[in-house]
Amino acid sequence: MKKLLLVLSGLLLSIGLSQPATAQGSRTGLGLRLTPDGGGFTGKFFVDRNLAIEAQLNAGGVFGGEGESLTAVGLLEYHIPLPDPSWRIFFGGGAHMGTWDHDHRHRDGRREHDDNEFIFGIDGIGGVEYVFKRVPIGLSADFKPAINFVSDVDFFPHNMFGVSARFYIR
Fold first, then answer.
1. Integer angstrom CA distances of residue 164 from 1, 21, 39, 41, 167
2. Of 23 and 37, which is predicted with more confidence?
3. DSSP string spanning 122-154?
4. How far apart, in whole angstroms, are the C-alpha atoms of residue 108 and residue 118?
5. What DSSP assignment string belongs to 11-22?
6. What CATH number did the domain enclosing 8 receive?
7. Which of 44, 24, 131 is nearest to 88 (CA)?
8. DSSP class of residue 119?
9. Do the domain assignments include residue 26?
10. Does residue 19 register a pLDDT over 90?
11. Residues 58-113: pLDDT tens digits?
12. For residue 138, is it within any domain?
């Protein structure tokens, strides 16, 4: 499953990089996203001035939490420039899929371990980003809650809060 996720994320990144730039200065940003329990890679591809597609490959539970996970995430985001155009807020949603190796708790408190179950679900995202004027680097902070629908309907606790640094290719 991990190999499949790596192949899919590489395919998403290569498709995004191979798309021709459209008018109004579309940009592609590639970088890292760190969370309190893990981190991963992020690619943001602007379709127009305000609309972006973000692809993430996240590892969760690395620094503690409910087991470990590896997820590929696709998000559609709407960006709103603030009075200083270096700052913008964004919000949107999308989906994730991957594997989650976590412990279940029974009602009596006993823990039962599950091995690498497949997960699929939806994600929301909201945050703020600052893009430097003189160098093509953007820093962002976001809130990304998620709910799994497969294999069980469950709140997904990994990679919920994140900070990202991206290098923008013009």
1. 25, 23, 9, 9, 10
2. 37
3. EEEEEEEEEE-SSSSEEEEEEE--EEEEESS-E
4. 26
5. HHHHHHHHSPP-
6. 2.40.160.20
7. 131
8. E
9. no
10. no
11. 998 887 767 788 999 999 999 999 999 899 999 999 999 999 887 655 566 555 65
12. yes
> In sequence order, what are the beta bridge partners of 54?
44, 75
| Within-domain flag for 100 | yes
Q: Is 96 in contact with 121 (CB distance < 8 Å)?
A: yes
List Cβ neighbours of 103 (8 Å cut-off, separation of 6 or more).
66, 67, 111, 112, 113, 114
- Please give the tally of structural domains in the chain: 1
Structure-model confidence comparison of residues 4 and 34, the more confident one:
34
* Model pTM score: 0.78
| Domain interval for residue 127 | 2-16+31-104+113-169
Residue 165 belongs to a domain: yes
What's the token pair of residue 4? 């499949």
